[in-house]
């Protein structure tokens, strides 16, 4: 078989989905990414963004990015390791470390690279990394890149996690990695129990707070703050691609550990530094996260109104307790058809089918933002009400 034969098969499937109108990916948005967006000249209510605090069009972030471009230019043209570190990078690392009450921080160019870098640098040959089966792909890929041993437990199954930990050599290095908020179903990790088990079996913990920073916790510090376990978790990583409304990633923790990651993470060392505009926007977003809790409050109000509304209509929203609200459908074809119906009714949401979710767990992922209004939610619930009979 020729190497490209699989592409032919794949290409035909994509073309067929496009012709039939069931292709939900790479849809070009022609407007600002706000609560409403324009696609092909038509307005859609955005229920598919990770812009939780609604900051992507905040004039303060835009201004900060523009000023950074004026001062530093458009890019760093090199790795943080060599020519790519700006004083601006150090500034945001200092502020993030302070925000999370940690010794130190290192900023990467994306959240994906952050997980790749942390896991692959820390977990070496005789170490173990233990992950939840629903952890984000960047965690799974970080494990693949590490030279350590990888173990996985069924989603949030603490009995299985304990069984794994018990079976590992007592003196081996162990890292448990979990999403704080799981990105597809919007549920939380069982952090209290993970902390207990980590203490019992001498394991370290890394929590991915991509969907939690700015959203959960009294001060917006995420799931770890939400559970009051900030002194029990070794490493917290996050991304700038969601509440921070730009791009980039970071990890905070103990000085010597961050220093080790800084000097060994290949996804940091062999990739160009985060551009100044993104750092400046993230700095401004951090300031807003710290000073405008009302954004968070509104986000939760909107979220709960939507969750209650969907439940009343009989939709299955799973275990979600966050602004990520899935509508669990099961079959993938039915999910794509339902996505299409939503789209025809001016709702932009994300269909999620295997391998992004387990088989027969296909869902429509909806997510909410601090810029959604009560009227937006009424509109969305109206559409869901009309379409309920379909399911
Ligand atoms: C849980 C989780 N971790 C990490 C990432 C990667 O972040 P980024 O988009 O900044 O690469 C994502 C983004 O989808 C995510 O959902």
**Structural class per helix/strand content?**
alpha/beta
Question: How would you state the average pLDDT, rounded?
Answer: 97
* Count of distinct strands: 13
The N- to C-terminal Cα distance equals 42 Å
The CATH superfamily of the largest domain bears the name: Type I PLP-dependent aspartate aminotransferase-like (Major domain)
- Helix coverage percent of residues? 40-55%
In the predicted model, the low-confidence regions spanning at least 5 consecutive residues are none
Q: List cofactors, ions and other ligands.
A: pyridoxal-5'-phosphate
How do the strands line up in the largest sheet? 3-9-8-7-6-4-5
Major pleated sheet? 7 strands, mixed
What order do the SSEs take from the amino end to the carboxyl end, as H and E? HEEHHEHEHEHEHEHEEHHHHEHEEEH
Named at the architecture level, the CATH assignment of the largest domain is: 3-Layer(aba) Sandwich
CATH topology of the largest domain: Aspartate Aminotransferase, domain 2
Quickly count the domains: 2
What is the C-level CATH assignment of the largest domain?
A: Alpha Beta
Number of helices: 14
**Mind telling me the C-alpha Rg?**
21 Å
Give the overall shape, derived from the CA principal axes.
globular
Strand content: 15-25%
Summarize the structure.
By secondary structure, this protein is α/β, with parallel strands linked by helices. The protein folds into two domains: 5-57 and 293-390, Aspartate Aminotransferase, domain 1 (Alpha-Beta Complex), CATH 3.90.1150.10; 59-291, Aspartate Aminotransferase, domain 2 (3-Layer(aba) Sandwich). Helix content is 42%, strand content 16%.
